[in-house]
């Protein structure tokens, strides 16, 4: 049986889609902050649903990525290296691998920004009952 190879280009594309969805979540979260300040509960609910849809896209991208490693331990190992290792320590032999590292770095930065905005919003909306207690 021929050994399967990891489609690094597909991984790169799926990570870019994931980043796009997280970027949209970040935009929606900032919009929710503005909407909440205006006490527009209907719009906040709508924005929460839109944000949930984007979270589903992120999950779907990651499911597709992990499915690529099913059934072949070597492919799975390479996938883990690309997706979970420190981006500074991943081998960058190809342009795709370099791009994967870039996408992962900018995704982490965006997630940090989103987490801060989410924390502010949660504390405004829920006060002491917030997930991010003051």
Compile the SSE list and pairings:
Blueprint (H helix, E strand, L loop, with lengths): L7 H30 L3 H27 L5 H12 L10 H32 L8
What does this entry look like structurally?
With 134 residues, the protein is mostly helical. The protein has one domain. Helix content is 75%, strand content 0%. It has four helices and no strands. The chain has helices at residues 8-37, 41-67, 73-84, 95-126. Helix 1 (8-37) runs antiparallel to helix 2 and helix 1 packs parallel to helix 4. The radius of gyration is 18 Å and the shape is elongated.
Count the domains.
Answer: 1
Helix content: over 70%
- Terminal Cα span: 57 Å
Low-confidence stretches: none
Structural class: mainly alpha
Could you give the order of the helices and strands? HHHH
What kind of sheet is the major sheet?
none
Shape: elongated
| Number of strand elements | 0
Radius of gyration: 18 Å
Mean pLDDT figure: 89
